[in-house]
Specification:
This protein has eight helices and 59 strands. The protein has about 1000 residues and is mainly beta. It folds into five domains: about 35-190, Sandwich (Jelly Rolls), CATH 2.60.120; about 330-350 and about 365-500 and about 535-575 and about 590-615, Alpha-Beta Barrel (TIM Barrel); about 635-695, Immunoglobulins (Immunoglobulin-like, Sandwich); about 700-810, Immunoglobulins (Immunoglobulin-like, Sandwich), CATH 2.60.40.10; about 845-990, Sandwich (Jelly Rolls). Strands 29-28-27-26-25-33-30 form a seven-stranded parallel beta sheet, covered by helices on one side. Strands 51, 52, 53, 55, 56, 57 and 59 form a seven-stranded antiparallel beta sheet that branches. The protein has a six-stranded antiparallel beta sheet with strand order 3-2-5-10-7-8, with no helix packed on it. The chain is globular. The two termini are about 45 Å apart. About 55% of the residues are buried. Keywords: Glycosidase, Hydrolase, Signal.
Length: about 1000
């Protein structure tokens, strides 16, 4: 099926190419990426059309001039400065009466655009798309035009009008790939046209497609189109929209007309059309079902302008502390990913199919959300998430705090522009107004922007934290579990530990002990960090840590009460060329490495995230490998959603594992024996529901190559990439998981070697020889502009070498190419439509609190159950701290859930009584926020909690900011109130029978 689909994609690509070339003069949007020249350095004369650029470097966009430094240099050391890009082009024939617009998906940091020597405009924020009207300055066919772009990626670049820097141009987080690292397009339009969604530079809002009146069960919704039309004729016109809706199979499912409007000369007016549609396929997690909605402007029943929007339809709702997608509750589990989403040697400037490949891996790990960090993602990643079915949280721009004055205005302007530009993309469910809390007034401003430009998109706008905001529609802290009965709260980052893919465990060369390499580091601002050894792990413990941290969120999931947690995102998905806490010069927190090779954490998430809320398909994963020395005895960890797990070595049972954190099963002191190790999972009835087996590989014998390529084939455009995976295998073709062999690569034919990454000098960036790690590695090769074969040979001492060929296919390389970068890329639909079944079962029943009595701070007693985590009650006297709660009814209390200040490092010895009967006597465990205490089931209406001893300190959960700041986890006044039982929230539950 896959081969058939790729073949079909190629035929479709070829047919579209032929058709587009035949109708090139009717084309409205062109790929403007080909045929640029680049010079690094200040050459002011380059703005002049007669300037000689023959000695400049020929490049095709997207291309950051310093991208070869990606992962070779620390983020602080990425090259900065002035770079110029130039291109000579002709307009199409029969275009003399057309409007001409240019659209840049982005520039870093600043770009000044000149056409035929005339200054056109400047863009400075380094994050957002922008464009200009070239019509007054462009020369008609067959004359040549010269466009020149001066770029400046100085970290300290300041806006010329205000002399203000941009908060998000931050040397910790926002990797600095300079120049034109994103796509560029040219648009040809008539004098009556639908505008582009580029507000800051053109003052226009484009076309808005949205659905209303959903009936998910009956697959119905009303599809609405509102398109801003501008009349640049000298007379008024009467215009209306004609809308066509085409499904993914190419079938037109609807065609309808809007009302007729009079548009006066030089006026912009929103034209509207809508229709109720049946049998819709709704976009969903892992189901990137998309439609093409084409809006035509008709003047006197003649089409004068046409815009095609690829979009999807889905319903979203945010209430009762939960997130609803197509009427089904979904708990967020995914990744806080750097917006740069970078790769070794090429930075962020990858072809669109590689964005799909990377983002689809998040879905295949059972992640459903990517929270892009600090700045708005580029359009290629936004559209990619639509195709792969990955929900997005879209920021505007921020560093780590609220700001005022011009810097705040820059943030609101960027949010406005990003919403207008991306509001047709169904995968965006959240607009993030800040990477830290913002004031309520600022939140109101952001909400007003959303309401003005995207009132019907079904998206929540909020910010990190905002726990008690009356305006924000979602929130959540960075590291801790939050709960709410109102707007959803999900963790914007958690589990930030680091671990190289190279290191399996303590028993496998090169023997990386936990904590190694984390004590000698300073952050990007030069400040020394406190000891961060606790963050530096190997694959074994990194995977286990991910599971342990997730359990705290899962324990408070929807279905566990009226106040629930809506999940969170692990930081990060792929290792990143940004700030770090280890001896390597890049962040290694990813569940895949920079070449997207999975680590054990990837498979751990596949297991624990398999479901919308509750785990739905039982799975098991044995952490590690099974290729040790004969004398090795070690603990084996199995990650599973089964109720019981049994371990077998060579079909001999070692018994059942010790379960912890629900998903972890530990088998102590397992002796290695060559052969197989197998984990079998059972449900509560003893029925087998899953298994996972690992076999011992033989001695390294040969080198094996395979490719990951663009669906339909690698394009011969000097910019497409093919990923080549190299493995060291035994004589039966099995990967040798402990191999560290050096591999020599030789590339010939119509391609060039780009390289990969490994631990060693300069991280082996650009090196033609690099080692496998854990038996595998990857490199990239780049096509040339000539179709043909790229031949890759891989060899290693004492191993059988191998050769592989990649065939590249012809594409339109014209200065105005008719082949767009994302054309004909397939959607990922493997998960299928939103299931009609419930996403969770209610696990327990909360009992409401109607009052509380205490001998100290009585007026604050209600704050311990007010559904506001920024308030708390604390006993202020020197005698025994005690508080008594009255419940709404008599109930059989079986669990007490508490959030007590200092939760990550303070253990409180407490006693709990229900109607004066002791049900719990012990210490609260450490957590990321809430603790669930199982108590002796006891019927009653009054619950008393008292502190019965000294509070104990622990550093078992070590969370330190990159600045060295240690968060107090809810403690006030430096923790002086810890003896006084500071309760932030408390809940009482009874079991459901």
């Amino acid at each position: 099926m896959k081969r058939f689909f790729y073949a079909f994609s190629f035929l479709l690509l070829f047919a579209n190419l032929v058709n587009a070339q035949q109708n090139k003069s009717d084309r409205e949007k062109y790929n403007f990426n080909y045929g640029w020249k680049l010079n690094v350095g200040a050459v002011e004369e380059a703005k002049k059309p007669e300037f000689d650029d023959q000695k400049w470097t020929a490049v095709n966009l997207p291309f950051a001039w310093n991208q070869a430094e990606a992962f070779k240099k620390d983020i602080r050391d990425l090259s900065t400065g002035i770079a110029w890009y130039r291109k000579t082009f002709q307009l199409p024939k029969d275009s003399s009466d057309k409007k001409v617009f240019i659209e840049f998906e982005g520039v870093r940091q600043m770009g000044e655009v000149y056409l035929n020597g005339t200054f056109i405009g400047r863009h400075e924020n380094g994050a957002m798309a922008f464009g200009f009207d070239l019509t007054p300055y462009v020369k008609p066919y067959p004359q040549e035009n010269v466009i020149a772009v001066k770029t400046d990626n100085d970290w300290r670049y300041k806006e010329k009008a205000s002399n203000s820097g941009f908060q998000w141009n931050d040397r910790n987080f926002n990797a600095n790939y300079g120049g034109l690292p994103k796509n560029v397009y040219l648009h040809m339009k008539s004098k009556v046209y639908q505008t582009l969604p580029l507000f800051s530079t053109l003052g226009t809002t484009g076309t808005y497609v949205y659905a209303t009146d959903f009936n998910i069960v009956e697959k119905k919704a009303v599809v609405n189109v509102s398109s801003q039309v501008k009349n640049e004729l000298s007379t008024p016109i009467k215009a209306q929209l004609k809308v066509s809706v085409v499904d993914m199979q190419g079938k037109e499912v609807a065609s309808f007309l809007g009302d007729s409007y009079t548009v006066n000369p030089n006026e912009k007016k929103d034209l509207k059309a809508s229709k109720a549609l049946n049998n819709l396929n709704f976009w969903s997690w892992g189901y990137g079902y998309l439609y093409t909605v084409t809006s035509e402007v008709l003047v006197d029943n003649k089409s004068v302008d046409k815009v095609a929007i690829t979009t999807g339809f889905r319903k979203a709702k945010f209430e009762k502390g939960m997130i609803y997608l197509n009427d089904r509750v979904i708990m967020m589990h995914g990744y806080a990913q750097r917006t740069s989403n970078e790769w070794p040697s090429v930075g962020m400037s990858v072809p669109a199919w590689m964005s799909d490949y990377s983002n689809s891996l998040m879905v295949k790990s059972n992640g459903n959300l990517v929270r892009w960090m600090h700045i708005t993602p580029w359009k290629q990643d936004v559209e990619s998430c639509d195709r792969v079915g990955l929900i997005q949280a879209m920021p505007a721009g921020d560093s780590e705090k609220d700001v005022t004055g011009r810097r705040w205005e820059q943030r609101t302007e960027l949010m406005r522009d990003a919403i207008i530009y991306n509001r047709n993309n169904p995968s965006i469910l959240f607009y993030e107004s800040g990477n830290n809390s913002i004031s309520e007034e600022h939140m109101k401003e952001m909400l007003a922007i959303r309401n003005q430009y995207d009132p019907y998109g079904g998206r929540a706008i909020g910010s990190r934290e905002m726990l008690d905001s009356k305006v924000a529609e979602y929130g959540g802290e960075m590291l801790y579990i939050n709960k709410s009965a109102k707007h959803p709260l999900w963790a914007t980052e958690y589990s930030r530990d680091e671990g190289l893919r190279k290191f399996w465990d303590d028993f496998t060369p090169p023997f990386h002990k936990n904590g190694t390499g984390g004590t000698n580091h300073s952050n990007a601002n030069g400040a020394r960090l406190t000891d961060t050894s606790a963050y530096n792990r190997n694959q074994d413990t990194h995977a286990v840590e991910n599971v342990e941290r997730w359990y705290d969120y899962w324990e408070q999931r929807p279905g566990t009460g009226e106040r629930v947690n809506s999940g969170g995102v692990n930081i990060i998905f792929s290792d990143s060329n940004t700030h770090y806490r280890g001896q390597e010069n890049y962040r290694r927190s990813g569940e895949v490495d920079p070449m997207r090779i999975p680590k054990d954490g990837f498979y751990a998430h596949q297991v624990i995230w398999d479901g919308w809320v509750d785990t739905e398909t039982p799975k098991a994963h044995i952490v590690g490998h099974w290729n040790y020395e004969k004398e090795v005895t070690k603990d084996i960890t199995v990650i599973s959603t089964a109720d019981v797990v049994e371990l077998f070595v060579n079909n001999v049972s070692l018994g059942k594992g010790l379960q912890s954190k629900r998903f972890l099963f530990t088998f102590k002191n397992v002796q290695f024996k060559p052969g197989s190790i197998k984990a079998v999972g059972y449900d509560k009835s003893g029925k087998q529901v899953c298994e996972n087996e690992i076999r011992t590989a033989g001695k390294p014998y040969a080198v094996k190559l395979s490719t990951i390529e663009r669906p339909g084939g690698t394009l011969a455009n000097a910019n497409d990439l093919a990923i080549v995976q190299v493995e060291v295998v035994d004589d039966k073709g099995n990967r040798c998981p402990t191999a560290l062999n050096m591999i020599d690569f030789e590339v010939k034919g119509q391609g060039t070697f780009v390289g990969g990454i490994a631990q060693g000098p300069d991280n082996y960036i650009g090196a033609s020889s690099l080692p496998v790690e854990c038996g595998v590695n990857r490199i990239m090769v780049r096509s040339t502009e000539t179709e043909g074969l790229i031949t890759i040979k891989a060899s290693s001492n004492s191993l059988k070498s191998t050769t592989l060929a990649v065939k590249t296919i012809k594409t339109d390389l014209g200065k105005l190419s008719v082949n767009l970068p994302n054309e004909n890329l397939p959607s990922f639909t493997e998960k299928g439509p939103t299931p009609a079944t419930p996403s969770f079962k209610r696990a327990r029943l909360p009992i409401a609190i109607i009052g509380a009595k205490t001998n100290s701070n009585q007026a604050d007693a209600f704050k311990s159950y007010d559904d506001n985590e920024l308030t708390q009650w604390s006993y202020g006297k020197n005698d025994k701290a005690v508080i008594e709660y009255e419940l709404e009814r008599e109930a059989n209390i079986s669990q007490v859930v508490m959030k007590i200040a200092g939760w990550k490092r303070k253990k409180y010895p407490i006693r709990i009584l229900v109607d004066n009967k002791k049900v719990f006597d012990g210490s609260t465990p450490l957590s990321l926020g809430y603790v669930t205490l199982n108590v002796t089931p006891t019927k009653g209406k009054k619950v008393q909690i008292e502190l019965v001893g000294k509070v104990k300190d622990s550093d078992a959960i070590n969370l330190v900011e990159i600045t060295g700041k240690v968060d107090q986890a809810g403690l006030k006044e430096g923790g002086k109130t810890i003896e006084r039982l500071p309760i932030i929230e408390v809940e009482f539950h009874e079991q459901i029978h």
